[in-house]
Amino acid sequence: MASAPFKQILIANRGEIALRVICACKDLGIPTVAVFSEADRDSLPVRFADKAICIGPPKSARSYLDIPSIISAAEIARVDAIHPGYGFLSENERFAEVCRVSGIKFIGPTPEIIAAMGIKERARAIMKEHGVPILPGSAGVLSGPEEGLEMAEKIGYPVILKASAGGGGRGMRIVNRAEDLPGLLTQAQQEAGASFSSADVYLEKYIGAPRHIEFQILADEHGNVEILGERDCSIQRRHQKLLEESPSPALRPEVRTRVMAKLREAIRAIGYTNAGTVEFLMDEQGDLYFIEVNARIQVEHPVTEAVTGTDLVKAQIRIAAGERLPDILGGPVEFRGHAIECRINAENPETFAPSPGRITGLNLPGGVGIRVDTHAYQEGVIPPYYDSLVAKLIAHGRDRAEAIQRMKRALDLFVVEGIHTSIPLHKRILNDPDFVAGHFDTNFIKRWHA
Ligand code: ADP
Fold first, then answer.
1. Is residue 297 within 8 Å of 312, Cβ to Cβ?
2. What is the extent of the structural domain holding 76?
3. CATH number for position 147
4. Within a domain: residue 223?
5. Are 198 and 216 found together in one domain?
6. Tell me: the pLDDT tens digits for 319-338?
7. C-alpha span between 240 and 439 (Å, rounded)
8. How far is the CA of 213 from the centre of ligand 1 (A)?
């Protein structure tokens, strides 16, 4: 690369992902601008960015979600690109559009693609059109209980009602019997309306014991598409991921090859650009069914980085600068070993209740095969206003057994005092014989409590 792809990048996020983007920019020689709320004044991204601008009070709606404040900061600092991280404005098509009209490159897909992928039943239709397998379900938004009942009768119970604009596992209801459908539909619509921009709900077949498998996509602005393997994110609680790994211990090679070929075609055909994740559920037969596209970098991206040796955030920035994927990747993607990520959250490991507060003692593990992505530091505060992610602990080994062993060692050396964390929960997962054998689905944690 002759010169830096951008003159200056603003990071419209906070926490570990803001720091992660700063690291990628440092590697590329690009100066950074952090924006922060009053609650994050003493945070590491503010300390390590080249510039930092306060954009408002703690509440996200008036800071990290406030488009005019962020654009003003970008204009004052004269940046030529914005990285949105994940969450907050990362999949907000209006933000991507405002960036475009302001002459600032949004590091992510176009507003049109974000909009299309954000409506889940629309993304379903698009994938189906291109031959990617989807679960049987409604062709679009349910018009009412009659259509839902008719559809469910055809597919067979159980079915799941899902918010079109859904995210974070909200607005979903499992329906086991016809008589429950009308009431649950009303509940799902109300929850969707309260949490998202729309009360629209669609229906699909419910898989009782699925595995969550997702593929990492990179696509440049010249029609080149690469799929950097899959991640297995089946270890969840309340439909939220806790532990992710790559490759999946359960995906059959022929299914992987078949689905990846269809997916590559679909991604190219829809003109998707930059990084993205395509999520699937695997049924008991081992077949994959598309559920949704996340048009952004994801929390669990480091496991893919570990097994492919590719810096995905750097790739996002270079793609946004118009570079070609073959130049960015420097050859065919090769897969090495096995990687696992544990999400260390500030929460009670039994009740999962958030546990914000001051970190009074901290020891971060290291050593061979270990990576820690975190914004935590001794005496630092985890504020109550945002998500509870404290750190991501990633272990890489030659095979799954070695990755598990290294993860266990790192969890033993990981000390966080002053707040509760999910470290004890992860130790329990790593020692579970079913987990070690690779036998688990999304109900793994739920089964402990049963
Ligand atoms: P969100 O965008 O809210 O995260 P997803 O569509 O990605 O919603 O689903 C989140 C999780 O919910 C999945 O990983 C899975 O555990 C569960 N889920 C979603 N759809 C189904 C389904 N059809 N059958 C069984 N579980 C499902």
1. yes
2. 9-107
3. 3.30.1490.20
4. yes
5. no
6. 999 999 999 999 999 999 99
7. 19
8. 11
